[in-house]
Design goal:
2 copies of one chain form a homodimer. Chain A has 191 residues and is mainly beta. Chain A has helices at residues 62-74, 134-137, 146-155, and strands at 20-28, 31-36, 49-50, 52-55, 77-92, 105-118, 128-133, 160-167, 170-176, 179-180. The first copy, chain A, has one domain (3-189): Nucleoside Triphosphate Pyrophosphohydrolase, CATH 3.90.79. In chain A, strands 1, 2, 3, 4, 5, 6, 7, 8, 9 and 10 form a 10-stranded mixed β-sheet that branches. The longest helix of chain A has 13 residues, at 62-74.
Chain lengths: 191, 191
């Protein structure tokens, strides 16, 4: 059993969407609302910065989950949003010996941006919420592959599907709309 | 345990993406390649017409599944494709008494169109493959909600998220990008 991006366990859960999540970057002018994961012990995201979001509950569409999770984590109610892409986040524990038989655990992150919301920001159980200038976000401690989709969020308007494969903390593969990206990733390098 | 859109069982499967599927409408000029589900007994899609596709396997991104399923069912290899939308297909058996506690079974269908492929069409185990004029597709026996997304595929270029809730064969709710559609659906009626 392994922990996933959003800090809960991917395996041993029921079959109903447990590996589906939303991840939202809420915008205020040239800032994103970032969550600094410093509150939970044994958090796979410990000390990393991510957007807000969480796991689908039974019967939820991506938007149902988005609205619920954003409200639960921030106190804000989204009035509109943009569905930007899907990230297939595949994780192989560092301790796992490479074999053909091993299948990575995958989480399907539904990625949104939103700049239209109402309500008052409230503290979040999962970490500290901080408005960060978009230009500064890439300098924070992030998952390596987040740098790829954060660039896509700023530079690309069309919906994208990005597969990111990790071995432990290390990004080993990135595939954008079926095209392998060269790693380490620099913008607009595709092989 | 209930059968789902694409003819396999949604419940009692392992947690790794069993309720994630792809559904692809392959184009040839003004025709779609449609699958007429007439070969399997006890097929929830029996006699209905749908596109080609199937369930994600472990470790697959939406595109991994798309390419594999299209090849398995048609013998064709897609050279490019367009990821058009996600359909959250929620199903409550007709026999289920309405209660607040009941949670529908959901399948997340990743919807594609593709006009660029190579190879030779081969027979499909799941049904009969037929090229059908796009104008004629809506006159075939279809799932009621398919008429909604088939119209979107022809009329809308932006990515969409559509939630369709069924009780047995009957469409009881349709929500497009968070907006409830009036049922029965006629194009561009939103409430």
């Amino acid at each position: 059993m392994a922990e996933t991006r959003l800090g809960t366990r991917i395996n041993g859960r029921n079959a109903m969407g447990s590996n589906l999540t939303t991840l939202c970057y809420i915008e205020r002018g040239d800032e994103y609302l970032m969550l600094h994961r410093i509150k939970k012990e044994n958090d796979v995201n410990r000390d990393k910065w991510i957007g807000v979001g969480g796991h689908f509950e039974k019967g939820e569409s991506p938007e149902d989950c988005l609205l619920r999770e954003v409200y639960e984590e921030t106190g804000l109610t989204l009035k509109s949003w943009r569905f930007r892409g899907i990230v297939t986040f595949c994780f192989t524990p560092e301790t796992e010996k490479p074999t053909d038989a091993y299948q990575p655990l995958c989480e399907y992150m539904h990625l949104y941006t939103a700049s239209d919301y109402e309500g008052k920001l409230t503290p979040c159980d999962e970490g500290e919420l901080v408005w960060v200038r978009k230009d500064d976000v890439l300098r924070l401690p992030l998952w390596e592959g987040d740098r790829i989709f954060l660039r896509l969020l700023r530079g690309q308007n069309s919906f994208f599907s990005l597969k990111l494969s990790y071995r432990g903390d290390c990004l080993t593969e990135a595939v954008l709309d079926g095209i392998h990206l060269q790693l380490p990733y620099h913008e607009q390098t595709a092989v």
